[in-house]
Amino acid sequence: MLRKDENELLTRVGPGTPMGDLFRRFWLPAALSEELAEPGGVPVRLRILGEDLLAFRDSSGRIGIIEAYCSHRQAPLFFGRNENCAIQCPYHGWRFDVNGECVEVSNSQNYLRDVPNAKERLAIVAYPTHEAGEIVWVYMGPPEHKPDFPAFEFTGVPKGYCHASRWLQRSNWLQGAEGEIDTSHISFAHKDLSSEHEKVGITGLQYSLADSSPVLSIKETDYGFMSGSRRNYDGKYFWRMTQWMAPMFSLIPRAPADDFTSGGGRAWVPVDDNNTITFAYNFRVDRPLSNRSFNSSRKARIFRHA
Ligand code: FES
Question: How far apart are CA 224 and CA 237, in angstroms?
Answer without folding.
Answer: 25
